[in-house]
Amino acid sequence: MGATQETMHHVGTLDMFMKQIGRIVELNGEQIAVFRDSSDRIYAVENKNPHPKGGPLAEGIVSGHYLYDPLYDWKIDLTTGLVQAPDTGQVKVYEVKVEDGGVWIGA
């Protein structure tokens, strides 16, 4: 079940998110890492590395729909949140909508 209009939160405009660089937004007390790929698609995941030692994800680099985490060089699929083999784990993925230049995240 997708987020309803009441659960979508405006977090800025598309031009506020640099391509291939993460930005942190806070919703309901949670830090969310928001990324814009080279095709202007927006992804949002929890800003919490699934590695046992943890750490932020917003400082990672985006290539296609993958995030390369800055601390452990894990490759994370931004569409599913799944860490790619040989590593394992998953991050929470948030629904994203871009409408009339505005970016909305479901939380």
From TrEMBL:
Residues 9-105 form the Rieske domain. This is Nitrite reductase NAD(P)H small subunit. Keywords: 2Fe-2S, Iron, Iron-sulfur, Metal-binding, Nitrate assimilation, Oxidoreductase. SUPFAM superfamilies: ISP domain (SSF50022). One of its GO terms (molecular function) is metal ion binding. PROSITE patterns: NIRD (PS51300), RIESKE (PS51296). The keyword Metal-binding applies. The lineage of its organism: Bacteria, Bacillati, Bacillota, Bacilli, Bacillales. It comes from Paenibacillus woosongensis. GO terms for biological process: nitrate assimilation. InterPro entries: Rieske-like_NirD (IPR012748), Rieske_2Fe-2S (IPR017941), Rieske_2Fe-2S_sf (IPR036922).
